[in-house]
Amino acid sequence: MPVQSVPLDTLAAQFSRTIAESTPLTTIKAQFTRTVVHPSALDSVITVTYNMTPGNDAVKYRILVFDVQGNLTAFPQDVITFSFEDLVNGGSGTGQMDVPRAFVDLGWVGPGYRVQFYLDDGLGDPWYDGRVMEIDQADQGSSDSEVVTVHCEGWHTHLDDAIIDQLTINPGIQPNGVNNGTMNADTFLTWALARYMDSAAFGSAYVASMPVGIDQTSFNGTGLGAALDTIIKQVLDNTGQVYEWWVRGTSNGKPAIVIQPQSNPNVVTTNWYSPSKLLITQCITEFMHATIYNYRIQTTATNLFNMIALYGGTDPSTGMTAYGPYKDSTSISLYGLRQKQVTNTNLVSTASLTNYATVYLLLNAYPQPQGSFKKFRASDYARAGQWFQIYEPGLQFTDGEKFIVGTGGVLGQHPPNLKQVRAVRVVTSMQNQDRVEQEVFTTAPRAFIDNSYYGAINESANTKASQARIVGAVRLDLYHLVGGGDYVGIT
After folding, report:
1. In terms of DSSP H, where are the helices of 367-477?
2. For residues 59 and 447, which has the higher predicted lDDT (pLDDT)?
3. Which architecture characterizes domain 155-270 according to CATH?
4. Domain boundaries, the chain
5. Residues 6 or more apart in contact with residue 151 via CB below 8 angstroms
6. Is the CB of residue 242 less than 8 Å from the CB of residue 264?
7. 120-146 per-position pLDDT tens digit
8. Do the beta carbons of residue 454 and residue 299 sit within 8 Å?
9. How far apart are CA 59 and CA 118, in angstroms?
10. Quick one: pLDDT at residue 38?
11. Higher-scoring residue by pLDDT: 350, 135
């Protein structure tokens, strides 16, 4: 049943909009600047025509809005401004769009409504999927030009609407001598999602194999999403295995959560790009000044530590606190001695101390590259977690009409650089109905050091032996053409 109470012609004339009652979407006249459909089940929505921005770098996009019952209420073509983000841990993040006030007045957008943003060059699933959390209306002096700002959150925040309370995991040998055994991370994550996830809002979850025992952990009123993040970061801290988790949407169903190992740009494998799209992993190739601009790379050594005094828990066989000093001698020779005390009471043996120290120094003993760039043309494949391979032009030094390189004055040109960086945040936006812009942030966590470009580091046999014991996910050393350091106990 149509929901409007005024004639169709009046609405079309006033708002340049067509209300489709029984007419298929594919036959709606193109001259109207907006189309609204009432109602249509989410799982039977047919393809909707994409909007196109002006100019030579035109990008096709569309925005779909669904009410809380899953009925399609609008696919606006006169959004003034929008901005949507995708995060490596979380997936769809914050979103915002400015639309004419009529969208709210007529009930096409409201709190709790689902908002999907699509780009037309790739997956078919939405690039962004979230829900309306706030609507801001400001008096602009004229009802004809009044707009409202719609604020959205990605569905991963809904995970925290369910809490895990009064749950403690105590693996290993207890003070009374009882051995509680171990629980692998994937076992806990699968159980927690089945127990606490809102199945009415989310589709089936995918949890990759994660055969890593988790440490002593307590959850008291902790949101489900925060608990998942805690376990995944714990696996990184203890083993160096890097996993990502996110919630993204699908074109004809519910959003869903995926927990998987990070992709490896140098190994052909497959990874989930959306809950329904499993694709071969590959780098997106970009050329500085040609396909990307505003390119910035910063290398920071602010939190660099290359010698640690590592304190563990009580060894049940000796009754003494496990302890060991560890260092990265190569880092010390390059950057000087930087010490720190580290405590992890779950480490109760020399072997566990050594493994932990190996990972800690790998993640902390060298400068961290961070940066961002903007793409001339937005792409559906540019998502958080994606690797980019960037060509930097070679350096040219001029002396009159000659190009020279170095102090020796060799004629020629310094060869171009090639960098591999991983996106941890991507923002797709449009200002004043002009062009769709995409900014990629590579402010990588410490797991994504790239010593192949930021230091000539020799990888030691100890590092290789320790990392060979890490199973289940991509190992950190795969990202280093040259990497590592000496992780040995100090005698």
Report:
1. 451-454, 461-468
2. 59
3. 3-Layer(bab) Sandwich (3.55)
4. 8-81+96-138, 155-270
5. 94, 95, 96, 132, 133, 134, 135, 136
6. no
7. 877 789 999 999 999 998 766 555 568
8. yes
9. 11
10. 35
11. 135
Residue 314 tokens, joined: 């009580």
Phi, psi angle pair for 195, to nearest 5°: -85, -35
**What is the per-residue pLDDT across 66-103, written as a single tens digit (0 to 9) for each?**
999 989 888 877 788 999 999 989 999 999 999 888 88
User: In percent, how much of the chain has pLDDT > 90?
Assistant: 30
Q: What is the distance between the alpha carbons of residues 305 and 337, in angstroms, rounded to a whole number? A: 8
Q: For residues 269, 273, 278 and 281, what is the CA-based torsion angle, rounded to 10 degrees?
A: -20
Token pair for residue 65? 């809005």
**Euclidean distance between the first and final Cα of the chain, in Å?**
81
| Secondary structure (3-state) at 446 | helix
The phi and psi torsions of 448 (rounded to 5 degrees) equal -110, 40
Q: Tens digits of per-residue pLDDT, 50-65?
A: 676 655 567 788 899 9
Sheet holding 284-287, edge to edge: 284-287, 387-392, 417-422
Q: 484 or 99, which is more confident?
A: 99
Determine the Cα–Cα distance for residues 395 and 218; give it in Å rounded to an integer.
54
Tokens of 318: 């000796």
